[in-house]
């Protein structure tokens, strides 16, 4: 049997694999950066979590 | 941004959000198609023959699912009254909402249809014809459905009644949609004949739908 | 570090931040080696080179099922032991499992077309795998329907436990029914019947996929914890300024 019979299906399958894996990695990475960015923005407006506040003694945070 | 464009964008944003119905529509579509071989048997030849019909039925039911929230959710939180007293003509408002519904419900469905068609062993020329008929026919489903949604808006648990009102009205669209899809594959009738009728049905619904729905809303709300 | 000590989200984040880069590196290395061995593997005397699709298809099937198994344990963790990170793990795992199951369906379909002449057939194994994919989508939809993730967790946990019945159906479907799909040849009583030149690359690919899953899972769990913090802060902000 010729070695490259049905090569388009093999390439298609591995292509699908690459697309899926890359998409998953990209999604996880972008989501991480997005959440970090939002958290940084929220911190600059002075909001902080109760446990972060407690552990940093009397951290000044207005509006909370 | 004009008020109508703002309304369009708002409706689309709500639809893709949590519990909004955009993704649910496609999921429902896939589930209905998956159920068919359990009911009809796994004979691929049979499935191929009824494939376009199954996909059209599933598209119809999935469209119907999201119609319930076309006016009802706005009615519940009072924004429908705001929209009614706003400056834009009610017919155009309904057209904008209908467009939002079609973009968020029907487009994902049309994109998913070829993949799902593979499950039913539909051949590429039939796939192309099917996608085209869905593209042209689903706006008719939306706008005819809008009339039913407007009639049922003030009713609690109006969802079931909506289905009973809307489904008979969509029968011509279903007939010609499936006929065109089948004609793309085989059969003595050329694709153009039922397809042209389908286009005519959609164009008519784009006009009649908003006017009828507006009349129904005015009757309901006042 | 025991599992119970990882229950604290902040400690988990610290551990995850340390572990993820190493896991990512290990994943890349194992993948590279596995693909190298897979390319070297001999062609099947009947199927030719298309047998190489199996090196993608089988591991993704295994991972799709493993992921639901993990979600099932997480569901028990939520319902029975009330472990605080259980629902985070469950929510993070769902899209990963869905992706692996989808890849299994697509690669299987592309393998089936040249081998058996059809992209799809409604036999027991393929159908139950498709059902698994739909179950994943249902779980993902359920997570998204309730805004508060910790409230959605209990509903999702129950759905996960009920859906777990599909896993033995997939596994034993080729034994219980006459199907087009190949019978069990790796995990069976009496040992595997697959030749080592094919089996070794297959197991290597499975290891690579598993490492990828673990890495992505930890990273996704990290994202989910951060997302919940964002939500908490936003709610605080809204109540403070409102």
Layout of secondary structure:
The complex is a heterotrimer of chains A (64), B (222) and C (242).
Chain A: H1 7-44, H2 50-55
Chain B: H1 3-16, H2 22-40, H3 44-77, H4 79-85, H5 90-119, H6 124-151, H7 158-169, H8 171-183, H9 192-221
Chain C: H1 9-40, H2 54-81, H3 86-116, H4 124-145, H5 149-163, H6 166-176, H7 196-241
Walk me through what this model shows.
The complex is a heterotrimer of chains A (64), B (222) and C (242). Chain A is built from two helices and no strands. Chain A is an all-alpha fold and 64 residues long. Chain B has 222 residues and is mainly alpha-helical. In chain B, 84% of the residues lie in helices and 0% in strands. Chain B is built from nine helices and no strands. Chain B has helices at 3-16, 22-40, 44-77, 79-85, 90-119, 124-151, 158-169, 171-183, 192-221. The longest helix of chain B is centred in the first third of the chain and has 34 residues, at 44-77. The model of chain B has no long low-confidence stretch (mean pLDDT 86). Chain C is built from seven helices and no strands. With 242 residues, chain C is mainly α. The mean pLDDT of chain C is 87. Chains in contact: A-C, B-C.
Q: Top keywords for this entry?
A:
heterotrimer, A: 64 residues, mainly alpha, C: 242 residues, 7 helices
Mean pLDDT of chain A: 78
From the spread of the alpha carbons, the general shape of chain A counts as: rod-shaped
Task: Based on Cα principal axes, name the global outline of chain B.
Answer: elongated
Low-confidence stretches of chain B: none
Describe the main β-sheet of chain B briefly.
none
Would you count the extended β strands of chain B for me? Answer: 0
Class of secondary structure makeup of chain B: mainly alpha
Q: End-to-end span of chain B in angstroms? A: 29 Å
Helices and strands of chain A, in order, run as HH
State Rg of chain A: 24 Å
- Model regions low in confidence, pLDDT < 50 over at least 5 residues of chain A: none
- Quaternary status: heterotrimer
Question: How many helical stretches of chain B?
Answer: 9
How many strands, what sense, and barrel or not for the largest sheet of chain A? none
Give the % helix of chain B.
Answer: over 70%
Give the number of DSSP strands of chain A. 0
- Number of distinct helices of chain A: 2
